[in-house]
Prior knowledge:
Number of strands: 0
Oligomer: single chain
Distance between the termini: 47 Å
CATH superfamily of the largest domain: MetI-like
Order of helices and strands: HHHHHHHHHHH
CATH architecture of the largest domain: Orthogonal Bundle
Mean pLDDT: 82
Strand content: under 5%
CATH class of the largest domain: Mainly Alpha
Structural class: mainly alpha
Helix content: over 70%
Radius of gyration: 25 Å
Amino acid sequence: xxxxxxxxxxxxxxxxxxxxxxxxxxxxxxxxxxxxxxxxxxxxxxxxxxxxxxxxxxxxxxxxxxxxxxxxxxxxxxxxxxxxxxxxxxxxxxxxxxxxxxxxxxxxxxxxxxxxxxxxxxxxxxxxxxxxxxxxxxxxxxxxxxxxxxxxxxxxxxxxxxxxxxxxxxxxxxxxxxxxxxxxxxxxxxxxxxxxxxxxxxxxxxxxxxxxxxxxxxxxxxxxxxxxxxxxxxxxxxxxxxxxxxxxxxxxxxxxxxxxxxxxxxxxxxxxxxx
Length: 275
């Protein structure tokens, strides 16, 4: 093949039909994934604008986005985002730092897991919000009680998912590693821990969602800053667009946290599929 023929082949235009077909596939996939959400938002905007629904309770989306932009531009919502992320992030990091090592330990030693499981199940079934007044009595209305109630609620999904991940490791893999002379530490590092990572990430994603849910409740009681406080304060002052703006920001934070964890899981577990 000559250089001229190579250049002609490289410069050959892509058929318009192929481009349109590819665009149709991408558009169809996007419509199938986000079509219901887009239709819901369009119905919200149209229903509120034309009086089909109560615009006082559900203001048009354009008013909500204006309130969101004004809050971000003024820096008020930016400060609230920073404070909320600090509270939720500190509690989530503490739950990860405590729950994963304890779960790995309990999952490997059956006697310890059987001894601690009843009290874990008891506390897991006790609502963190029901215990919040106890935390306030012990720690006061300051940051400590807010962080601790979020920590308490996020600890159990991580802990139980880690224990379950360790217990579900194929025992034949462990026996095979020991047959080849692997030490207990090597078996843990090369077999148990990698096999437990997908289950641990399930717990992390559940805990991240729980952290944001408890954050809202914690900031509605005895707080003067944060997105949860902003939702309650806007409702009290009947600033409904601002209230929805703060709610949308909380939803965006939850989506961002889930996306970050899914991305990290895919990098760490390329051999395992993620949902």
